[in-house]
Amino acid sequence: MRIDAFRTSDERFAALPDYPFEAHWLDVDGLRMHYVDEGEGDPVLLLHGEPTWSFLWRKIIPPIAARRRVIAPDLIGFGRSDKPTEIGWYSYDRHVASIERLVVELGLERLTVVVHDWGGPIGLRVAVENDARVDRLVILDTGISAGRPPSEMWLRFRAVVREVGGDLDIGRLVEAGTAQGLADDVRAAYDAPFPTAESKAGALAFPELVPTEPEHPSTAAMNRVRDALVSWEKPALVVWGADDSVLPVRVAERFVETIPGATGPELVDGASHFLQEDRPAEVAAHILGFLP
């Protein structure tokens, strides 16, 4: 079945700051998924969330790639990946299946999975359902819902997204989740994948996929992930922006309480939700210090 999808032109990505990486592509059921693939050695998978793309990791990738192989995909609907134009196309299951396809197609083993924001529910599910491939987890400012809203701030965020719809200002939304603000060229880079209203369907869909009530379609699957993490004995590191008001530090503390193999939370001062923008060197150092 043909999927109506928007493909952002390559010209939109021609002059991005600090993003020199070669493009790689994977076919996912007729949709083109973009990913960065740098370095050699045991792989580290970096998963972004809402409404970012692999550009979020641009200052994290080089120091890790000096020691390991780093793969940073753009979720379907984001970055350089194809963007189905129907909001109803997007689901938790489809995002998980696309990342699982990437892991299998690239033959990733002895994997460190690093997750942020919506990359958390996606990547943690991929990890627990493919645990023979995964050696360790790094968890940054994310959550696994139990069928209730993550926070009052998050509910306000969802309300704003619903109100503005296709007029959503992606760059400004990312900037609002930082403590340090963004330079004009960085804000423009977050806008680059989304030149039209139809290209933003994935960004508009994500808030609706968060299970804020027990009956939500995503609730049962996310609760299975939470249950699996209770018995996750492999190493896990929790790193958090100390000033994150969307997912406050108590969410980080719950991860450490839930996962037997978890250490932390390591709090990054001067960093909000998008800690990769606020304090990239510190984030990279935490990840590198956790690798064997």
CATH hierarchy, class: Alpha Beta
CATH fold annotation: Rossmann fold
Report how far the terminal alpha carbons are from each other: 44 Å
CATH architecture: 3-Layer(aba) Sandwich
- Give the CATH superfamily: Alpha/Beta hydrolase fold, catalytic domain
Number of strands: 10
List segments where confidence is low: pLDDT < 50 over at least 5 consecutive residues: none
Task: Please describe the biggest sheet, giving its number of strands, its sense, and whether it closes into a barrel.
Answer: 8 strands, mixed
Order of strands across the widest beta sheet? 2-3-5-4-7-8-9-10
Provide the structure class.
alpha/beta
What fraction strand?
15-25%
What are the secondary-structure elements, in order, as H or E?
EEEEHEEHEHEHHHHHEHEHH
Rg to the nearest angstrom? 17 Å
Layout of secondary structure:
Elements: E1 5-6, E2 24-28, E3 31-38, E4 43-47, H1 61-65, E5 69-73, E6 83-84, H2 92-105, E7 111-116, H3 119-129, E8 134-140, H4 152-164, H5 170-176, H6 184-191, H7 201-209, H8 219-229, E9 236-241, H9 249-258, E10 262-268, H10 275-278, H11 280-290
Parallel strand pairs: 4-5, 4-7, 7-8, 8-9, 9-10
Antiparallel strand pairs: 1-6, 2-3, 3-5
